[in-house]
Amino acid sequence: MSKPRIGMWMYQNSGGDQIQKKMIDLLRERDILTTPELNLRHAVAKNGTIVCNDTVMEELDLFFSYNAGEQTQYQVYLYETLSHFIPIINSFEAFSISEDKFKTAHLLKRHGINTADYMLCHRDDVHGLKNILREWGGKIVYKPTDGWGGMGLVKIENEAALDMLLPFLNQTDIRYFYTERFINYDNTDFRIDIVDGEFVSCYGRKAPKDNWKTNITSGGSIFLREADDEVIEIAKKAAAICKLDIAGVDLIYDQEKEEYVVLEVNGIPAFATPEQEKMGLNFNDKKIDLIVNLIDKKINNKG
Ligand SMILES: Nc1ncnc2c1ncn2[C@@H]1O[C@H](COP(=O)(O)OP(=O)(O)O)[C@@H](O)[C@H]1O
Ligand SMILES: [Mg+2]
Question: What are the chain's domains?
Fold first, then answer.
């Protein structure tokens, strides 16, 4: 019998190339072969097959897709199509929920996980927005549902600010507004990585002075942080509810309600960069092992 073969598309910057190499070596030790660099951007689908760099994607035993930020609509379209034929990590269903902040919050809330209070309404529902601003004590955050890196988030602290924002947003083609109650927190967050239901790591990010966003792209900085059992349990539950095999769960601690709140769930959480490893973030090997195990398990459960 020929050896199983998986396809891989992994980010190469920030040490990703080294992670990929380690993963391929460990898979080979388990008699699993890997075809890397399968960027669906270069794939063509024709008469029953999706072909990417000469590889027939449907003939792979599994596809490991791990490249954030570079997904075009074309890639996502083929990701979805392929998901009907071979297992993909993460599954397309889970991936698409995690890419959308409203869908994630809605799913989590319905399963009893604390998220920020949120509201989605039609773009013309100015009345609804003004009401929610009052109901939530005059502080809301407008968020694009598919944003990342803190981009496009606007804190609205009074009706005048809302009146300023609305004409601007109305010039865009968005159909709805997604808003959250602004949470009073200490401007630090928790990033908890989960693979296959297991806790991998926790670190924190701290917002820069005079900023409420912890994103690195907003000037936030990473620090080592212990996770207590409660926050780990919440992260595990959130990953399971979203059906993510691999998840990076972002939480903050609401100082008023005195509870952890899940802000978002990332389906392609980055490994520690070489610089972060020097700081002491040493979870990469554990994460690689868990992912290799997961791939092995999925391939051999195939029956
Ligand atoms: N409801 C909120 N209340 C207070 N701060 C928030 C809220 N939502 C987001 N933030 C801050 O903004 C940052 C970015 O928000 P997030 O929803 O994670 O979007 P992104 O995908 O752009 O990272 C968070 O890391 C957090 O620091
Ligand atoms: Mg975030």
Answer: 5-89 (3.40.50.20), 117-181 (3.30.1490.20), 185-290 (3.30.470.20)
Going from the Cα of 180 to the center of ligand 1, the distance in angstroms, rounded, reads 9
Q: What is the pLDDT along the chain (303 residues), one digit of tens a residue?
A: 789 999 999 999 999 999 999 999 999 999 999 999 999 999 999 999 999 999 999 999 999 999 986 688 999 999 999 999 999 999 999 999 999 999 999 999 999 999 999 999 999 899 999 999 999 999 999 999 998 899 999 999 999 999 988 888 888 888 899 999 999 999 999 999 999 999 999 999 999 999 999 999 999 999 999 999 999 999 999 999 999 999 999 999 999 999 999 999 999 999 999 999 999 999 999 999 999 999 999 998 754
CA of 225 to the centre of ligand 1 (A): 19
0.85 surpassed by pTM: yes
How many Cβ atoms sit within 10 Å of the Cβ of residue 248?
A: 22
CB 207 within 8 A of CB 214: yes
> Which residue ranges have their beta carbon within 6 Å of ligand 1?
101, 116, 141, 143, 147-151, 153, 180, 182-183, 189, 207, 212-215, 250, 263-264
CA distance 104 to 264: 7
Give 40 Cα–ligand 1 centroid separation in angstroms: 30
